[in-house]
Amino acid sequence: MGKRKIILIINGVLFLGLVIFTYGTILTLLNDDSISISDKNEIAYIDFSTEVVELQSDIFEWYPSVLYTSEDFEYDVIAIADDDALYGTYRVTLDLEEGETYMIAGQSADYAQNVWINGELLSQVGVVSDNVDDFVAEKTEYSITFVAGEEEVEIIIQSAYFNHVNGAVESLYLGDPDLVVDLTVTYYMHETYILGALASIGLFFIGMYAFYYKDVSLLFFGLACFAVSLKTALYGNSIMLISPSLNWYLGHRLEWISVFAYFFCLFMYLDAVFHWMINKIAMIIGLSILVGLSMFYMVTPSYIYSSYLSEMVVVLTLTILFLLANGVYTFIKYDGLKTKTQFLTLLSVILLSLAAGLERLLYPNIVINILAPTTLVVIFINAIIFTFSFTNTDKQLFIASQKEAEINSRNNMLENLNLLKNDYMNTIAHELKTPLAVITGYSQLTQLQINENKINEETIANLKTISNEAMRLSNLVSKLLTVTLDAHSSTEKTKQNLYQLIEEMSTILKPILVKKGNIIINDIEADINVRINYEMILQVYINLAVNANRHSKSSVITFSNDSVIDNRVLVRVVDTGTGISEEILPHIFEKGFSHDGSSGLGLAICRDIVEMHKGELQVEKTGPLGTSFAFTLPIYIDE
């Protein structure tokens, strides 16, 4: 093995380690911090003023095939073993401090259960019954607040699971109400962070495919990201926020089908990167099995397919190994080590297959969600893959320009395309920051929207904003091309109300501004209508507001206008931040120039967009009391 290959492998391992460390740190900070116990006597050593306890199922006494209440336990009752039980009663008594208020929160009840505390029914999930006809399954979250008395607190959970062969009480969280609420919010933030990131990146790759449609690998990788995001939502509790009334049976089927769809897209992606050289018969067999498993889950009752979970996992595992073996064989046969993209792609698919396989092998005895975080790590590996692809394109363009040096026009065209392509990629990377920041911010605002663990309409609205911003990422790809590839081309300009545009921008940036205590004041006159490209001017205002927010704290960002002159209105963006130094001021509109660690593209993009609207972006004044940007926009005139 040559020195260059050794260096390449070492650098790859170091990069992968850095990515895993970074995401691991983020996920650790968002992870729940609770103490798990399986012996009720350990309660005596818990400080409930600072700690939350996770009550595992082992702590409960199990009475199969009976539905007991507190009155029944006044007499001596015994548990009769019944391996085929489809309903039963869990009971535990805890010695808690008298007079203290506690909260019990269940992350999810996948079947049907009633929770009794000290003889009082405080929670009902679905309909618990001793017969399948009256039984109703439901997936939801619940929380219960109670005050401990003189005697031990008795917790009874009646559970029924006629819909699933494996039924057990979910872990419960017990502690001070404020701490339990904080823990629940942290759980949602963790899940929303991963879900939003996966959906956004999936949109990005599908958007890339729209412009590089010959590279089908972009499409299948984007669809694989979507499949993981769907599985993450269904696997956890996000789906209860997005669709509270989702039928349990439909949700459970979709969870498994999303896993099969994920592997289908993953191996189609691998085959596309290998230029369709993987054995066709092997691919047809493997993918047909995945489709067959999906159909089996679609048409078979849940109790039946859940009875064959072990067999299903074995079939899925063998199918994955079969497809992986063919991928490795193709890699070796065509000496894939010489092709960095194929090597990294195969490594990515192996990592994802191991994560998904381990997750399914442990289910339902151990419920973990490692596929989504692993996918985020692999996304960065694929970023390297596509960088290699573009680098190879650069080399081919350079060779072509050398061979055709005598044709100056052709040579210049290739060089310009190369520069524009790099500019395009930088622009996309910059413009993705704001929507992703909004997604992250609104997921953090979930903590403010959930009061006493109750989901309200505003919470749903916040999640809808996350969804809208994710959709906006797809539109940004085409809009940015309009700006970067042809700054003087004709763009669609329509009648827009300037005041309403600022209001919409304020809503988008709300979570970003809240972090630094900044606010936006909209002093635009309500009747000002302009003829503009909506998405582009919205991006100008967003970039200017984000810049102002970056250099301000507990300040005001004001949007205003002057009188109309020659059918153009002068608009201003004024902040009360730290201002721009004299040394930096002449360079702020230069692409790539930055003094604060940013990309250096925001103001350059704003200038280009304003010039496309026949205006000029300029700094009116700046200093220690703030900065004022101004530019003109054309007034809309009825024809």
Distance between the termini: 72 Å
* Tally of strands: 17
Number of self-contained structural domains: 3
- How many helical elements? 16
Rg (CA only): 29 Å
Largest sheet: 5 strands, mixed
Helix content: 40-55%
Assign an overall shape.
globular
Percent strand equals: 15-25%
Q: Average pLDDT across residues?
A: 78
Report the structural category: alpha+beta
Poorly predicted segments? none
Strand order of the largest sheet: 1-2-10-5-8
Primary descriptors:
globular; 639 residues; 5-stranded mixed beta sheet; Jelly Rolls; 3 domains; Heat Shock Protein 90
Produce the secondary structure layout.
Layout (H helix, E strand, L loop, with lengths): L2 H27 L5 E3 L15 E3 L5 E4 L22 E8 L6 E9 L2 E6 L2 E6 L14 E8 L5 E8 L11 E4 L1 H35 L4 H20 L2 H5 L5 H26 L6 H20 L2 H6 L1 H25 L6 H23 L8 H33 L4 H24 L1 H17 L7 H29 L8 E4 H19 L2 E4 L6 E4 L1 H17 L5 E10 L2 E8 L26 H11 L5 E6 L2 E9 L5
Parallel strand pairs: 1-2, 12-14
Antiparallel strand pairs: 2-10, 3-4, 4-9, 5-8, 5-10, 6-7, 6-9, 11-13, 14-15, 15-17, 16-17
Helix pairs in contact: 1-10, 2-3, 2-10, 2-12, 2-13, 3-5, 5-6, 5-8, 5-9, 6-8, 8-9, 9-10, 10-11, 11-13, 12-13, 12-14, 14-15, 15-16
General description of the model:
The protein has 16 helices and 17 strands. By secondary structure, it is α+β, with helices and mostly antiparallel strands. The chain has a five-stranded mixed β-sheet, with helices on one face. A five-stranded antiparallel β-sheet has the order 3-4-9-6-7, with no helix packed on it. α5 packs parallel to α8, α5 (248-273) runs antiparallel to α9 and α8 packs antiparallel against α9.
